Amino acid sequence: MKVLQVIPFFTPSMGGSVTIPYHLSHWLAKEGHEVTVITTDYKYDPDYAQSLKNVEVTPFRHFARLGLFLYSPEMKRWLRSNISKYDVVHLHNFRSYQNNIVSKYAKEFNVPYIVQPHGSLPRIVEKEGLKQLYDAVWGNGILEHASKIVAVSGNEVKQFRRAGIPAEKITVVPNGVNYIPPASLPPAGQFREQCRIREKHIILYAGRLHKRKGIDFLIRAFNSFIQTWPGNDVALVIVGPDDSYQSVLADLVGQLGLTNKVRFVGFVPSLVAAYRDADVLVYPATYEIFGLVPFEALLCGTPVIVTNDCGCGEIVEEAKCGYLVHYGDVAGLSKALKMALDQPDVNKRMVGQGQRYIEQHLMWESIVKQMEGMYRSCIRHI
Predict the structure, then answer these.
(1) d(C-alpha 59, C-alpha 98), whole Å
(2) What CATH number is attached to the domain comprising 108?
């Protein structure tokens, strides 16, 4: 198959909505398919693009932007000349200028397209009015003419159904996870040394610093936890790029008197060393449809605490491979932190269960086969 992947931006610092199509493109190419990625030059990472072997990545200049709505009219000329060469088009994220024009030309040239919102479909948290306007002008039509809409979890299926998307148009394909061989793990202490962390215990958050990620909830629970934890030997380490929220979090840390106990590390290209040194990984998000971080941590042998209303929470519950808490339950998360640091035998059992589940259900070798099958079904029915 000739597959066109469409991503508004191309840098790993933008999180899973980029890294998932990156790995999907890699595995599709590995399976012998001809894959092209079109994107824009907004925060474009040429080294990241060049690391995607046997995949052509073409960035188009953006001339203006409103938030992450990136106006790139040069892409139109390329689409008119090239889109008919592809068997199927895969649109990543939802509300973008790129999806507007690509879906238009896909319809004109009778090429099936798939939409994978990566959690961006609900009109929540911010810019609700602009999202509603986009949907009225473009978004509803993009969804209506799509061959399939990809959900990565039951949680996201519920979001789609509430938005009025018919069940027969929805296909569930989980996000893939890259296997991390135990032999490839860095030596213990590497991350500690790099970040000068001297405390005995590390509680880790990894991901974008955004309002809906629940980091403020984690900080409050950490503050409650250290009131009862003996000694002064635990640090909360927050790893990830700022998404216009770090100043809010830093103010909260200061108000709670935690400045010496909470570290903001920033973006780290590889999280493996951080997982390796952490006592527990906390994923406290709300409205999340999946979340790769807890599964990567489990593959590194690190126990996890996740909220039970997100996509990864439903998998953690099914596999019985981590601690579950309600989003916003400060006392509950504080208790879970204590349990995670106090119960090494329980942690070991849950980590083992998680690793077996990931190997059986979430490896990219399996996920790419599911995506291939969906692509073929769309091509047959065009």
Answers:
(1) 12
(2) 3.40.50.2000
Q: What is the pLDDT of residue 125?
A: 61
Q: Within this chain, do residues 319 and 213 fall inside the same structural domain, yes or no?
A: yes
Pairwise CA distance, residues 249 & 220, whole Å: 10
In eight-state DSSP terms, residue 312 is H
**Sequence-ordered strand ranges (E) for 51-168:** 55-60, 64-66, 69-71, 88-92, 113-116, 148-151
Phi, psi torsion values for 324, nearest 5 degrees: -110, 140
| Residues near 111 by beta carbon (within 8 Å), at least 6 away in sequence | 83, 84, 86, 87, 88, 89, 105, 382
Residues 241, 209 contacting (CB under 8 angstroms): yes
Q: Which residue reads 């929805």 in tokens?
A: 170
Query: For 119-140, what is each residue's pLDDT tens digit?
Result: 888 876 667 888 888 889 999 9
Q: Which of 295, 343, 286 is nearest to 315 (CA)?
A: 295
CA dist 177 and 173 (Å) reads 12
Structure tokens belonging to residue 59? 């960035």
Domain span at 283: 182-361
Query: How many domains, the chain?
Result: 2
Question: Contact 7/44 with Cβ under 8 angstroms?
Answer: no
